[in-house]
Amino acid sequence: MKMWSGRFRQPLDPEFEKWQRxxxxxxxxxxxxxxxxxxxxxxxxxxxxxSAAELTEIVHGLDLIGSRTASSPEFLxxxxxxxxxxxxxxxxxxxxxxxxxxxxxxxxxNEQIATDLRLFVxxxxxxLQDLLADWIEVIVERAxxxxxxxxxxxxxxxPAEPVLVTHWLLAYAEMFLRDASxxxxxxxxxxxxxxxxxxxxxxxxxxxxxxxxxxxxFDDITANSIDATSDRDFALEFVQSLSLVSLHLSRxxxxxxxxxxxxxxxxxxxEPYSTGSSAMPQKKNPDLLELVRAKAARVMGYxxxxxxxxxxxxLAYNKDMxxxxxxxxxxxxxxxxxxxxVTGWMRTVEFDLAKMNQAAQSGFMxxxxxxAYLVERGVPSRLAHEAVxxxxxxxxxxxxxxxxxxLADLNSIHEAFKSDFPSCLGLTEVLTLHDVPGGTxxxxxxxxxxxxxxxxxxxxxxxxxxLR
Length: 468
Prior knowledge:
With 468 residues, this protein is mainly alpha-helical. It has three domains: 5-105, Fumarase/aspartase (N-terminal domain) (Fumarase C, Chain B, domain 1), CATH 1.10.275.10; 110-200 and 218-358, Up-down Bundle (Fumarase C, Chain A, domain 2), CATH 1.20.200; 367-456, Fumarase/aspartase (C-terminal domain) (Ribonucleotide Reductase Protein R1, domain 1, Orthogonal Bundle), CATH 1.10.40.30. Helix content is 59%, strand content 4%. The protein has helices at 14-20, 23-26, 30-46, 52-71, 84-96, 109-145, 165-190, 209-215, 225-230, 233-260, 287-310, 325-348, 353-359, 367-376, 381-398, 407-411, 427-433, 442-457, and strands at residues 150-155, 158-164, 192-193, 220-221, 267-268, 350-351. It has a two-stranded antiparallel sheet with strand order 1-2. A two-stranded parallel sheet has the order 3-4. Strands 5-6 form a two-stranded antiparallel sheet. α3 (30-46) runs antiparallel to α8. The longest helix has 37 residues, at 109-145.
C-alpha cells in the first residue's frame, strides 16, 4: 500500500513509478531512518498516542528491520518500496500488523528526509574528520622527516626562493586544516532536529521536540517548520566544503605530478599507486594522482548541481529535492574513498631530498636576500632591487651565480656592496633571513610543525551518541 494512495483511483504508470523511486539509492539512509523512527515512537508514547505495549512492539520491529538488513542485504531488494520511509513502514506493518501504521502519526516524509539527511551529513563529517586527521598527520610526519633539507619555492612556476621542504609540506597541512574547520562549522549548522515540523506547518500533536533532538544527539531543534522541511543549505554547505577538500587534493596531486617528472626529479612515484603503459615498457604513470584531479572535478560538479537544483524552488518541500540526494551521497563517497588512498601514497612516496636541496642553491633564488643586504646598509628598497637585478643580468650574461661576481663587478653597479656580500648568499643564511612567524626560518618552521601536529590530533572526532 502506498503512503498516499487514498486520494487516487488510478494506479501509477509503471514506467513513471519505477523512474520516480528513490529507494535504490536512499536505502543507505536506513540506519538514520530507523533511529529517527525510534525517537518519534518514544515521543508518540510520551504524548499518549502509543501504549507501552505498542511502543515495545514498534521498537522491536524497527530493531528487527535493522538486524535483518545487516545480516541479509538482499532484504533490501524490494521493488515496491517507493523510498526508505515507505520501506520501513511496509516492513513494520508486516511485522506488527496495524500497530506499525501508527508510527506515522503526526509526522510527514518531508521532515523525515530532512532529518535523515542531516544525520547522514553529521556522520559523514565525523568520518571525514578522522580521515583528514590521518592525512594531515602523514603530511606532518613527512615534513618532520625532511629535516633541514631545502627546495625551490615557485611563483608563476618559476623558481622564486628557497624554503625548507618541511615548510612546503606544511603549506598543504594548512589547507586541509582549514577544510576540517569548515566541516566542523558545517556540522554545527546541520546538527538541528527537524522532527516535529510535520509536512510544512508543524506536527499535529504536542510532541516534545527537544526530547527527540536529545535522543538523536542533535544540539537543538529547528526554529521554523517551513524552513525545516525545505532547507538543504546543510547539504549544499557540506558538498561545497567537500569541493574545497577535493580542490586542495587536486592542487596537491598536480604538484606531485610535476615534481615527479624528469624535469624536476624531486618525487619518485610509489609503485603501489602507479601503473605502466601497455605499449611503452619504461613508463611509470601517476594514475592515483591523475584520478584525484578528475574526481575533484566531479565533486565540484555535484556542488553546482545542488545549487542549481534548489535555486528556484518556492517554499516549502518540492519533489525536486529528491534529486539532491545522489549528488550528496556521491560527493561524500568520493572524498571518503580518496583520503585513505592519498594517505597511503604520501606514506610511501620517496622525496629526493638531496636533489631538492641542490636545486635550492641555484637560479638566483638568493636575489631577495642580496637586496636585503643592501637595504641593511641604507640603500632604499627599490634601488636595492634595481641593483641586484642588474647583478643578476650580469650573471646571466656570464653564466655564473651572484657569489661568483667580483667586488669590482658589484661596485660597478653600486658602491654599497662590500667584501662580506657572499656571506649573505648561502642557503642557511637565506632561509634564516625569513625570520617571522609563518616564514621558512628553521626556528619558526619547528614551531609550525608542532602546531600542525597538535591541530591534526584535535580533529579526531569526539565520541558521539550512538544511533541504534
